[in-house]
Amino acid sequence: VQLVQSGAELRNPGASVMISCKTSGYTFTLEYIHWVRQSPGQRLEWMGRIDPEEGGTKTARNFQGRVTFTADTSTNTAYLDLSALKSEDTAVYYCTTKNNWGKGTLVTVSS
Prior knowledge:
Blueprint: E1 2-5, E2 9-11, E3 17-24, E4 33-38, E5 44-50, E6 57-59, E7 67-72, E8 77-82, E9 91-96, E10 105-109
Parallel strand pairs: 2-10
Antiparallel strand pairs: 1-3, 3-8, 4-5, 4-9, 5-6, 7-8, 9-10
């Protein structure tokens, strides 16, 4: 099983960022994809998840209105789109299934 994430991103405050998570080695539609992040010096923070089979999502309250989760079953890839970025969104973002993690994508928000 592999979850391969897109590369590091640098954004200005107020911009948006999209992170991809391309999966392989298992049946994409049979497991939720969760997104978590870790800001410098902070604990892991769960952002939400998507059911790739039906497209249903659940979003943590802190991110409601700013985050979109999507999944492309033709490419077995999940996406996280985070808008209205703030400096506090600087973090490493991870996609995960029940037992596997991507290596993380560093997003830096700075003017």
